[in-house]
C-alpha cells in the first residue's frame, strides 16, 4: 500500500493563503445546506429509531429502487456502498487475484490504483489521446495478452470527464470498447462519478447502457457500473452505488458484510429525501463548474507559455496540463507553493510510471478571484523554470 499523493499534498496546502487546485473537492458553497437539514429531520420523523439502527447490507430499499429505475433494471442489481472508493476496493477484492491482468488508462484515477494494488494485479496501460482510450491500440493489446496466455481479467475506465484529464470518450469509442471487452471476455468496470456534471456538448450513453443493449439481459451484461451522490449532492454522506449482474452483486454483498455491514442508515435515508431536489441541484453545480472551467481555460491561455498543452473539459471537475518535456512538475511544486498555489503532479496517475511533465488542476472548489490569482502564480512558476 502507498499513501495518496493527493492527500499528502493537501496536508501542505492547508495554509489559508494557499490557493489549492490540488484536491478534487466539490464546492461547499454549492452544498444544499437547508435541504439537507430538512431531509435529516424528515428522515428521523418518517423512520424514527429505525433511522439510527443497523440495516440491510444491500441498502435502503427506496434508494435502491430509485437508482434501479433510472437505469431500467431491477433493484436487486443495485448495491449501496460507502462512497465509490469502497465500491472500487470491494470489486478489486472480488475480481482481482495475484498476477491478474488489469487494463487501465494512462493516466488513470489514482484512487483506483490504490484500491486495486493490495490484490497484486499486473497493470497494463492502454494508450490514450485527446479523445481518451485509443480503442484500436487496445485491440492489439487484447490480442497480444491472449496470445501470451495472459488474457486481461478487468478493464477499468472513466468515460465521462475522466479523472485526472477531464477527457470524454466518444460514442464510437464507447461502442467499440464494449464490443472488444465482450469479445475477449474482459469485465469492464465503468467509474462514473461525474457523468451528471456535463456543462457543454451532448450527453452520451454509459458503457453500462451499451452493454445492456448488447446483451439484452441485466444478468449477462459484462459491464459493471459505479457512481455516487458525492459530486451532485454532498460528499460527506458517503453514499454511492454499484450496479451489475446478479452473480457479482451477490458476492459484493458478502464482501461488504465483511467490510462495514452496511452504509450508514440515516445517511441513505437523507439522500432518499433529497432526491426531489436533485435535478435542480445538478443544474446549479453544472452552471457553476462550467463557468469556473471556462475561467481556468482562459487563464491558462493568458499565463502559461504557448508550449503548454491542456484539455478543455466538457464537464466534471478537472483539466490536465502537459508542460515541455524538460520540466518536472514534482520539482516545480515547492516553488508553486511558495507563490501560494498548489496542484497535483501527474506522475502518480500513471500505473507504470511516467507523466513527469504533467499536472492535474481542479477548478470545482475555486472562486473566480482564486482562479485568476492562482493561475497567474502558476504561470510565473512555469515561466521561471523555463528560463533557468
Give descriptors for this structure.
15% strand; alpha/beta; globular; Aspartate Aminotransferase, domain 1; seven-stranded mixed beta sheet; four-stranded antiparallel beta sheet; 44% helix; pyridoxal phosphate; aminotransferase; 388 residues; single chain; 13 helices; 2 domains; Aspartate Aminotransferase, domain 2; 15 strands
Provide an overview of this structure.
It holds the Pfam family Aminotran_1_2. This is Aminotransferase, class I, putative. There is one protein chain. With 388 residues, the chain is an alpha/beta fold. The chain folds into two domains: 136 residues, Aspartate Aminotransferase, domain 1 (Alpha-Beta Complex), CATH 3.90.1150.10; 241 residues, Aspartate Aminotransferase, domain 2 (3-Layer(aba) Sandwich). Helices cover 44% and strands 15% of the residues. It is built from 13 helices and 15 strands. Strands 2-10-9-8-7-3-4 form a seven-stranded mixed sheet, with helices on both faces. It has a four-stranded antiparallel sheet with strand order 11-12-15-14. A two-stranded parallel sheet has the order 1-13. β3, α5 and β4 form a beta-alpha-beta unit. The longest helix is centred in the C-terminal third of the chain and has 26 residues. It is globular. The two termini are 37 Å apart. The model has no long low-confidence stretch (mean pLDDT 96).
